Amino acid sequence: MSLNSSVRSAKNSKKLDSVPYPISLSSVPSYPAIKEPFDTLPNFINRDNRSELTKRSLTHWFKPPYPRQPQPKLSQGIDSSYGTSHCHPNILSLIGNTPLVKLRNIVPNPNVTVYAKMESHNPAGSVKDRPALNMILQARQRKILNPQTTLIEPTSGNTGVGLALVASVLGYPLELVMPENATSERSKIMKAFGAKVTLTPATHEMEGAIDYAHEKVNRLSNQYVMLNQFANPDNYLAHYLSTAPEIWYQSHNSITHFVSAMGTTGTIMGVSKFFNKHQLDVEIIGVSPTEGSSIPGIRRWPKAYLPKIFNETAVDKTCDVSIMQATTMARRLALEEGIFCGTSAGGAAHIAIEIASKIESGVIVFIVCDRGDRYLSTDLFTY
Ligand SMILES: Cc1ncc(COP(=O)(O)O)c(C=O)c1O
Fold first, then answer.
1. For atom 14 of ligand 1, which residue has the closest CA?
2. Its pTM surpasses 0.85
3. How much distance in Å is there from the Cα of 257 to the middle of ligand 1?
4. Could you give phi then psi for residue 142, rounded to 5 degrees?
5. Which residue has the higher pLDDT, 137 or 327?
6. Which of 187, 260, 288, 344 is the catalytic position?
7. Residue 97: is it exposed, middle or buried by C-beta count within 10 angstroms (0-12/13-18/19+)?
8. HEC string of 180-229?
């Protein structure tokens, strides 16, 4: 660790009080400012929705909730604390603004605060809703998409579910390719949103799904468009634009350590880029499975398949977690903290707790990537 945590915290508290939120796209280095992402809506979005959507710029999607309006007292016993969440123009505007939840029972060091960033609260249930929305909006803005093209994406699950949600609202045909050992809950959810699901042999792992999708796009390039979450900057920019500033403000500028399990590495790259850009001294810790451990959603990538968006220097430290450690911690989170999450979140929490026991003081935020009910067909909660 480069700095004592309390020094780091004090140093950071002087900075970034004035970073605007939401971050405008024009503040992202070499990224074109986007004024109107809804200029070419598919036809079947009806006129009312269209006029509602066209009013809004991209930053709308990642805005924090509107300030609460004062509400009149209705009658005795019913006060204005009812109905504090507001009406949304559509389900997509519920993406982002997930809460931070403080762990109460499993943190071994009283001088360290550990927060869970509840990405499981996104409407399709995972951290991948953010890049799914951003990648589709940006592709549409660049006129890569039209209602005749089919989106195709290799995904171990959560990105597919997020894309299926967004594609269903915006009206794009979608084919998702994943290894046949991905949990059945995910493919059922994707199909419920109207996506086509293609399964590749489990023995070929995620690489097999990636190869299949690339081959199809190369062969039928006029019919298929791949967003390619592994190489698409709009994946990590979603986190740069939303996840990272949310964490910064929600932790009251106090975060000293950020822990995230790594799949496409979009989450960790985007969050790291934000802290780096604003010169905030936050230690960035990536979590990957130990050799031989299979943890859904994250990988120990062979060099040839390392995601193109990954930049080794953006991560201060990588920690390995075994499937046993990740499973045990996911169960403890449910039993002791009431947080029902998936295995990769258990892995990130395991590392967060390990760090908490080693440092003098600090504020650690880890990502809860998805919900536990996505794993009910596995052994995760069978005990
Ligand atoms: C369950 C789960 N955990 C962690 C991750 C990692 O997120 P990222 O792709 O941003 O690295 C994913 C990604 O799909 C996931 O599905």
1. 297
2. no
3. 19
4. -85, 5
5. 327
6. 344
7. middle
8. CCCCHHHHHHHHHCCCEEEEECHHHHHHHHHHHHHHHHHHCCCCEEECCC
Structure tokens at 7: 């020094």
Is residue 228 a contact partner of residue 135, using CB atoms and an 8 Å limit? no
Ligand 1 centroid from CA 92, angstroms: 20
Say how far residue 75 (Cα) sits from the centre of its chain. 41
pLDDT for 43 equals 27
Catalytic entry in 117, 128, 216, 273: 128
Residue closest by Cα to atom 2 of ligand 1: 297
Q: How far is the CA of 285 from the centre of ligand 1 (A)?
A: 14
Which numbered atom of ligand 1 lies nearest the CA of 370? 1
Q: How far is the CA of 360 from the centre of ligand 1 (A)?
A: 30
Show the ligand 1 pocket: residues with CB < 6 angstroms.
126-128, 156-159, 261-267, 296-298, 342, 344, 369-370
Residues 254 and 364: beta-carbon distance below 8 Å:
no
Active site residue 272: no
Q: Tell me which long-range contacts 13-19 makes (C-beta under 8 A, separation of at least 24).
A: 13/253, 13/254, 15/253, 15/278, 15/279, 15/280, 16/248, 16/253, 16/278, 16/280, 17/253, 19/245, 19/248, 19/278
Active site annotation includes 344:
yes
Three-class DSSP category at 63: coil
More confident residue, 23 or 86: 86
What does the block give as tokens for 347? 């892995």
The pLDDT tens digits of the residues spanning 150-195 come to: 999 998 789 999 999 999 988 889 999 998 887 788 889 999 999 9
Residues 268-301: tens digit of each pLDDT: 999 999 999 888 999 999 999 999 998 988 988 8
- In the chain, the domains with their CATH numbers are 5-25+92-123+243-375 (3.40.50.1100), 129-226 (3.40.50.1100)
Residue 79 is predicted with a pLDDT of 53
Other CB atoms closer than 10 Å to residue 288's CB: what's the count? 21
State which amino acid sits at residue 344.
S
